[in-house]
Amino acid sequence: MPAPAPRKNHKVLGRLSLPERTFVADALRTETVGGVLLLAAAIAALIWANTPIRESYESVRDFHVGPAALGLDLSIEHWAADGLLAVFFFVAGIELKRELVAGDLKDPRAAALPVVAALSGMAVPALVYTLVNVTGGGSFDGWAVPTATDIAFALAVLAVIGTSLPSSLRAFLLTLAVVDDLFAILIIAVFFTENLNFAALGGAAVGLGVFWLLLRGGVRGWYVYVPLALVIWGLMYNSGVHATIAGVAMGLMLRCTTRKDEGEQRSPGERIEHLVRPLSAGLAVPLFALFSAGVAVSGGALGEVFTRPETLGVVLGLVVGKAVGIFGGTWLTARFTRASLSDDLAWPDVFAVSSLAGIGFTVSLLIGELAFAGDKALTDEVKAAVLMGSLIAAVLSGVLLKIRNAKYRRLWEDEERDEDLDGIPDVYEQDNPAYHLRMAEIHERKAAEHRRLAEVTGGASEGNDGPA
Questions:
Q1: Do 443 and 412 have their domain in common?
Q2: Is residue 111 part of a domain?
């Protein structure tokens, strides 16, 4: 009886396929621009809330607008958190659907890494927060605050200090954040839903059913879906379930696979994501940051962040819990699946990206508002802790990534090299005989040009020497 063939050892964080690399590059480009706008909005909010004109900030933030008869007489701050973030979670729903049907999460073996890493990266920060508050006698209500990762803010940091990060690490961060967003949505739905209005919830469910039937029927036209989406959102808000759940539910319903027999180049989900993502990254999330990040900051207030158990738990959860959780989950997944890290990377690279995931800005601010809704002072202190923890995580990851930046630049140059100028990086054609034939022809032409240049140069030298 022949011996069983040894199991092939697969690589963790290996090179992406070319289509996946292209998709990730396009998605990250938009998110990076959005991250820069998010950072600018957060800075503007802090300046606005900590200068003599801070009363105008509070007046604008607390100004109410909307039809009271429909239960939508909301402050600008609530419109940003419940309305604009629904657009953000709509995009997150599309991203998750695409990952499940056409991306890394389609293959259970490949999906294990980001899923385990994301779960570990949420469980450990929650555990850190809980331990700090058990020891210090604080409130457990904020356990979910440090569990979130803000992909846009993280990519804004990368745009400044990690421009040459290999695509495999960028894709890992993106997929990790998508899974993270899913579990953050579940946390919001399960733990921050009170006083359900079943009539409104039933209406929202009917609206989602109509939305699904229209999609399956091939109905097109924004003028059909946008009004329906607004009705679903309004019903979801009045149901007592956080309104952002409506966004992710509609995003998950979109078809994210192409129909080749119909000549589709991109799926409806990808087309809509391409249209809506700039709105989410460039408008919705920055405006949310503008009206949520404006907390009064002073030397004494910052000092209290490290002395009060609730705020210290948030900071340590983001900075320590996220890095340890994601790195530990990744290492354990590789260890128990007998996988090995990509030859181009080292475990310190994984730790650096794990620490970058400690930037929990957008969703952490949202969960902080929900967790301490009855205590305005503590809500502001927790927001300050989120800002401080995200800043520390950004600086720490920036230092770690800078140490390896020369290595990353070499990897990035190898990924981008296209000597035969066919639009496909050479690393993806090394097993293609036609590629090697083209490269041989290119090298032969270059050699011939060098020979001709040498002959011309040599002939000119001889001609100049003769008359002399």
A1: no
A2: yes
Which two three-digit tokens encode residue 65? 């607008």
My answer on whether 452 and 335 are in the same domain is no
Minimum mean pLDDT range among 115-119, 133-137, 312-316, 332-336:
332-336
Residue 63 domain-assigned (yes or no)? yes
Asked whether the predicted pLDDT for residue 7 surpasses 60, the reply is no
Query: How much is the pTM?
Result: 0.78
Q: Which amino acid is at 24?
A: V
- Give the integer Cα–Cα distance in Å for 193 and 402: 42
Number of domains in the chain: 2
Considering the domain architecture, whether residues 409 and 448 belong to the same structural domain is answered as no
Asked if 337 and 449 sit in the same domain, the reply is: no
- Establish if 235 belongs to a structural domain: no
What pLDDT sits at residue 158? 72
Domain that holds residue 318: 13-192+242-416
- Unique residue bearing structure tokens 């039933």: 202
Q: Verify that 395 and 351 share a domain, yes or no.
A: yes
Q: What angle do CA 452, 455, 457 make, to 5 degrees?
A: 110
Rounded to whole angstroms, the Cα distance separating 90 from 269 reads: 11
Q: What percent of the chain has pLDDT over 70?
A: 81
Q: Show Cβ contacts of residue 389 under 8 Å, excluding neighbours closer than 6 positions.
A: 146, 314, 315, 316, 317, 318, 319, 358, 360
**CA dihedral over 442, 443, 446, 451, signed as positive or negative:** negative
Statement to judge: residues 358 and 458 lie in one domain:
no
d(Cα 160, Cα 145) in Å, to the nearest integer? 26
Q: Is the pLDDT of residue 76 over 50?
A: yes
Assigned domain for 26 exists:
yes
